[in-house]
TrEMBL record:
Regions crossing the membrane: 20-42, 54-78, 90-112, 132-153, 160-184, 204-223
Official protein name in the record: Uncharacterized protein
Keywords: Membrane, Transmembrane, Transmembrane helix
Domain of life assignment: Bacteria
Length: 228
């Protein structure tokens, strides 16, 4: 347990990347949107989608976490399973704290009438509906999903090298292309959209959690055999 905690602390020593930078980017984005909103005026509610910059950042940092720390941690005598557990714990802590902050900012946004100009920045329609616990849980799952997705992509490169990444990207592109062609050929787009519209937000969170398990198992399996 001490080794796992040490790995988590190793990440959190880089406070700029893991704690400050995502919120610096997000708040700068908020200031830009507020400036635009003040300049154009208007009283109707406006959903910006600006919070997606935070989600993109979490995906990216999930991708860079492995190449920045894996070799160093193993060089310090950390076992691979402890490294993975400590990394997962760091992802979970950051996801939980970020989810709580998003909730607090969304509540402040609601109390202030959208920062006084009807701007909806932190609260997304559909995904941000429901109880307080539900909002925190869904954002926690979404953030954790993005972390592990980025980590799984980096694990492919660590295990199989850049050639493996090229093959992996090619396979994903081929699968997506076949799906798009099939949807066009059989005219299934309407059915697909109806199916998506029928999925509840809780069900989406459940699917994302299932993917987290897949990413975690795949990443761990690849890291066990990855060269240093």
């Amino acid at each position: 347990m001490n080794r796992i905690a040490s790995v988590t602390k190793m990440y959190l020593r880089d406070k700029l990347s893991w704690i400050y930078m995502p919120w610096i980017i997000l708040l700068l984005n908020l200031i830009i949107h507020l400036t635009i909103r003040f300049s154009i005026g208007g009283k109707d509610g406006m959903y910006t989608g600006g919070i997606t910059s935070l989600y993109v950042y979490m995906l990216v940092i999930g991708m860079v976490a492995l190449p920045q720390t894996f070799v160093f941690a193993l060089g310090m005598g950390v076992r691979r399973k402890d490294y993975f557990a400590g990394t997962a714990m760091n992802f979970a802590l950051i996801s939980l704290s970020t989810s709580i902050l998003i909730l607090l900012f969304s509540l402040l946004e609601g109390w202030s009438g959208g920062w006084g100009v009807g701007l909806h920045f932190f609260r997304m329609p559909y995904w941000g509906d429901g109880t307080v616990i539900g909002q925190v849980t869904r954002n926690f799952v979404l953030l954790l999903h993005l972390f592990f997705l980025g980590f799984a992509i980096s694990s492919v490169q660590r295990r199989y090298g850049w050639f493996g990444m090229i093959v992996f990207s090619g396979v994903i592109s081929a699968v997506v292309s076949v799906l798009v062609i099939s949807l066009n050929y059989y005219q299934w787009w309407g059915i697909l959209f109806q199916w998506i519209a029928g999925i509840t937000v809780s069900e989406w969170a459940g699917w994302l959690f299932a993917l987290i398990v897949v990413y975690a198992l795949a990443s761990y399996a690849m890291l066990r055999k990855a060269t240093v």
